[in-house]
Design brief:
Blueprint: E1 7-16, E2 29-31, E3 35-39, E4 44-49, E5 60-66, E6 69-75, H1 81-92, E7 95-103, E8 110-123, E9 131-145
Antiparallel strand pairs: 1-2, 1-7, 3-6, 4-5, 6-9, 7-8, 8-9
Amino acid sequence: MTTNAVKTQGTIVEIGTLVGTTAPGSDTFVVIGEVIGVDGPGGSADVIDATHFGSTFKEKLAGIPDEGQMTLRINLALEDVGQLECREARAAGAVRNVRVKFNSDADGNQMDFKALVLGINHSAQPNSKWDVTITLEITGGITWGDQA
């Protein structure tokens, strides 16, 4: 049986340069360079207890979905335009468009969402390089589509 797994090599993560509620199609994106890992998105929803006196078992409803966070692990590149854009977005507390392009020709090979750059954490060890973790807090939903 042949696998349809998507390779990570060639994945591109981009951040929009316009602030606010701009539609992704109207935004200008720059690549966040030297990404070495991605975690998320990791969405969930609260559980609403709808049990009442006539219930014979617990009854539950799903609350409003929250798409959660995406964490990027990157090599620090001081002149990378995408990394500079992330720093600017964090300092401004501004919502930005984020786009992830998967290395695939299949339908739905791109993810678009709006996010706050919540945190940028730098770390280093002897005889190594500077690592950076960027935490994106997703606001609203995620749209899956095809790369243009």
